[in-house]
Amino acid sequence: MTEIDTQKDIYLFLHGRMDLKEKAMSVLTAKGFANDKVTMALPNKVGNVGDYMAMLWMPPNPDHIKIQQITKVEDVEPEGMIGLWKGVSKDDIDTIPLE
User: Fold this and answer.
1) Nearest in space to 12 (alpha carbons), one of 3, 2, 31
2) Contact indicator for 28, 39 with CB cutoff of 8 Å
3) Which of 7, 18, 1 is nearest to 56 (CA)?
4) I need a surface site. Which of 36, 47, 50, 70 has the fewest CB within 10 A?
5) 29-84 residue pLDDT tens
């Protein structure tokens, strides 16, 4: 497993499960991320290479958070709800149970 640098930004994807936002934030802060480093993922703004993505997984009834590190960011035409994230490449580096 890759060492996670909790000083970097992490973008949280709830996949429509706003009811799990508080629980997801609690899990991420317990992992060592500061509240101000966790950003809700938006389709019109992506992270940088080296930043992290935290996804509630597996939709529609997630039971864990998948942590991924951004490895590449390409300019793309935004597409639907994915938006600019369509151009982001990433590697899975960790999973954290929601419970």
Assistant:
1) 31
2) no
3) 18
4) 36
5) 999 999 999 999 999 999 999 999 999 999 999 999 999 999 999 999 999 989 99
Per-residue pLDDT at 95 exceeds 80: yes
Judged on CB neighbours under 10 Å (0-12, 13-18, 19+), 97 is: exposed
Q: Provide the 10 A C-beta neighbour count for residue 28.
A: 22
Helices (H), the chain: 21-31
CA–CA gap between residue 65 and residue 54 (Å, rounded): 6
Look at residue 31 and give its three-state secondary structure: helix
